[in-house]
Specification:
Residues 348-374 are annotated as: Disordered. By secondary structure, this protein is an alpha+beta fold. It has two domains: 5-212, no CATH class; 230-330. 52% of the residues lie in helices and 16% in strands. The protein has eight helices and twelve strands. An eight-stranded mixed sheet has the order 2-1-5-4-3-11-10-12, sandwiched between helices. The longest helix has 93 residues, at 214-306.
Length: 416
């Protein structure tokens, strides 16, 4: 059996059962358990002898969207003279709907057989809907070949509003009414149709449900279309504003990023100069160590040949001062400027994740790999420079202590 569409048959049965509804020719157990009843709110709308009510309503049950087409006819309860009692049927659709003309024909055929099998002399002959005798309409299976989607209808939200349309309910007229009512289910949870003057007067007098005639129904459709057009125009206006906002945002963000890039270029140039100057200091330090060593060797040779201690000590002190000054002038490495990572101002209202700063932005840039490689080169050069300086310090201190030993030895010669 179909789970896309199926029937419900219902009625009022008096004490002790009251209103009961059962499901036939398909259905889904979860939906059947969750769906609202098809009972009428008899203090707002009520059936009279030889009268009939059609309805269309939306439901959301067991996570499914439902549209149901129903028909109610007057029928008495057993052993009761209570008014407003009825027997009825509903053709329910899950997530789709059928052709209105076919729906009406099948619905009327099912209702006629329901009354013929279960009503005698206007009295319902069973005491529960589970005991209804029903017949499958001959065109029931054809409905499945003409299903269509329902668009732009909010099934989840209930408005708790109801509309009664006082109009002819012949199959041709009802087909047009059902077709136009789908959109109106965004405004009303259920729309009833009747051509009974008594029912219309009753609804009007009670004033609980809104009631309109054919012209009023047309105005309801027009109001809905006007409201939909207003919403469309409003949304278009919002989108246009959004276009202007992102246009301004883009310009500001690009300008900020460009400014940061230019600043970083300047810092890169300054850092490059500092590194080159530090590399030049390494050359100067190496040359100074070589020259100082030679001067010491010359002093040793001069002492050996001339034996003039005072002259050797004086020359040594002069060479040592020159050596120390040169080393001190070239041993310091200037710190490098850090690359700017300040946040880019401006709020972006799209879903694109641009990141919080320039480094995040560069992560998505096709040139980021090259930039990272260049930055790594600077880091490696700096690291090598530091290693050379550490080695230079070690050599300096080693030589310095050797020089002190030499100075002591020279002093010893004087005293000797």
């Amino acid at each position: 059996m179909s789970t896309t569409y199926f029937f419900s048959a219902f009625g009022t049965f008096g004490n002790p059962n009251g209103f009961r509804q059962s499901f036939f020719l398909g259905g889904n157990a979860a939906i059947v358990k969750d769906i609202r009843t098809f009972d009428l709110k008899t203090d707002a709308i009520m059936l009279f002898p030889k009268s009939k009510i059609y309805s269309i309503r939306k439901d959301y049950a067991a996570g499914c969207n439902l549209i149901s087409y129903s028909v109610y006819t007057f029928a008495k309860e057993q052993n009761s003279h209570r008014g407003g009692t009825f027997i009825g049927s509903s053709l329910l659709f899950v997530d789709k709907i059928g052709s209105e003309s076919l729906v009406i024909n099948v619905l009327n055929e099912f209702q006629d057989s329901l009354e013929n099998n279960n009503v005698s002399e206007s009295i319902i002959t069973t005491n529960h809907s589970d005991k209804f005798s029903i017949n499958k309409p001959k065109d029931f299976d054809k409905i499945g070949f003409n299903l269509k989607d329902v668009n732009d209808l909010n099934f989840v939200q209930n408005t708790h509003k109801y509309l009664v349309v006082y109009n002819e309910t012949s199959p041709d007229q009802l087909q047009k009414l059902f077709n136009k009512s789908i959109d109106l289910l965004n405004v009303y949870d259920t729309i009833y149709f009747t051509e009974s003057h008594e029912i219309a007067e009753f609804v009007k007098q009670k004033g609980i449900f809104k009631i309109v005639d054919a012209n009023g129904f047309t105005r309801e459709i027009e109001k809905l279309q006007e409201e939909r057009l207003r919403l469309v125009q409003s949304l278009i206006s919002e989108f246009e504003k959004e276009k202007e906002i992102i246009k301004e945002d883009r310009k500001k963000i690009i300008d900020d990023i460009t400014q940061q890039i230019e600043q970083n270029k300047i810092r890169h140039q300054e850092n490059d100069k500092k590194i080159k100057d530090s590399e030049g200091g390494i050359k100067t330090i190496n040359e100074e160590y070589d020259q100082y060593s030679k001067r010491i060797e010359n002093s040793i040779q001069k002492l050996k040949s001339e034996g003039n201690v005072e002259s050797a000590k004086k020359l040594y002190q002069e060479n040592k001062r020159h050596f120390s000054n040169t080393i001190n002038q070239n041993k310091n490495v200037d710190s490098l400027h850090s690359i700017s990572t300040s946040r880019v101002n401006g709020k972006v209202r799209t879903n694109q994740q641009y990141g919080n700063d320039l480094s995040d932005f560069n992560r998505y840039s096709p040139n980021s790999k090259g930039k990272e490689t260049k930055s790594d080169g600077y880091k490696i050069a700096t690291f090598i420079l530091l290693l050379v300086l550490i080695a230079s310090y070690a050599c300096y201190f080693a030589f310095f202590y050797n020089a002190k030993d030499f100075d002591i030895r020279v002093g010893g010669i004087t005293n000797w």
